[in-house]
Amino acid sequence: QGVDKIAWDASGERLALSCKRGNEMYHGLIAVYDIRRTPLISKSLIGFIKGPGESSKPLAFSFQNKFKQGPLLSVCWSSGWCCSYPLLNW
Question: What is the pLDDT of residues 10-54, one digit of tens each?
Fold first, then answer.
């Protein structure tokens, strides 16, 4: 159980993470959080990203720093798909 993979966006305001295999409820999902640091550090769950296909799992993911419209999360899934998710209104 616990966190398997983690990625921060360049602003430090978005956090994406995936869970290890022991947690079947969240296995295969990427949780996206909004992080605030003023005056204290706080987090809010924004939502989950599910990959294409029946049982795809995130193999690797990262935020792209040069996307001007906001956070862009790119994910490579075990199904063979690589997808980019713009988090414009998150």
Answer: 888 999 999 887 667 778 899 999 998 888 888 999 999 999 988
- Domain extent at residue 8: 3-86
Indicate the length of the chain as a whole number. Answer: 90
Structure tokens at 79: 């199904």
Q: Is 86 helix (H, G, I), strand (E, B) or coil?
A: strand
User: Long-range contacts for 13-17 (Cβ within 8 Å, ≥24 apart)?
Assistant: 13/71, 14/46, 14/63, 14/71, 14/73, 14/87, 14/90, 15/43, 16/49, 16/61, 16/63, 16/73
pTM for the predicted model, two decimal places:
0.85
What whole-number distance in Å separates Cα of residue 49 and Cα of residue 77? 11
